[in-house]
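Human: You know discrete backbone vocabularies at least as well as I do. Show me how you would write down a chain together with its backbone fold. No explanation is needed for now; the record alone will do.

Assistant:
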Amino acid sequence: MNQLIDITELNNKYFILRHGESLANIEGIIVSTPENGLDKYGLSDEGRAQIETTIKKAKADELLGSKTRIVSSDFKRAYESAVIAGEILGTEYLIEPEPRLRERDFGSFELLSNEHYQTVWDKDALDSSHTSNNVESADAVMQRVSAFVWSLESYYDDQTFLLVAHGDTLQVLLTAFNKLPASCQRDLKHLETAELRSLEF
């Protein structure tokens, strides 16, 4: 369920940032569970450089600054990206770890080839509620990420948020902002590593 479906105007500004290249990206494997993602498979050197480049440009363009509130998935690759962003921006606020921004759980495909992503996405397009191979459904991801943004909208006003997370998680959040069903997530242009985008209705 999309918790943002009835909202027409935002109280805050939102930017999303996919983490930089990770060690899992280099190995070409899926890392989607807390057991493997919280303390392992952080950023590569290239991933750190990617984040630095993205955030320095965003700062120079005055999209983000010291008053930006950074909220990040608590997975290592995302949180490391958030820390780099916070250091460059000189943010006044502590970085907030948020489990609802974690990677989608890819079930029995954990630690297997990332070629299995396409298998899941193909099934998503037919049925966004599917949990084949114990995968977290796209609908469930939409529920948790849209509920998280709704909670920010309910509590804050006139703030700028940078949400740091993962490809599938942010792809589904983009879909929620576009008021589309989760089955359409791959119809939207996918986020590259360290890519920054604004969220708007």
User: Anything to note?
Assistant: The longest strand covers residues 13-18.
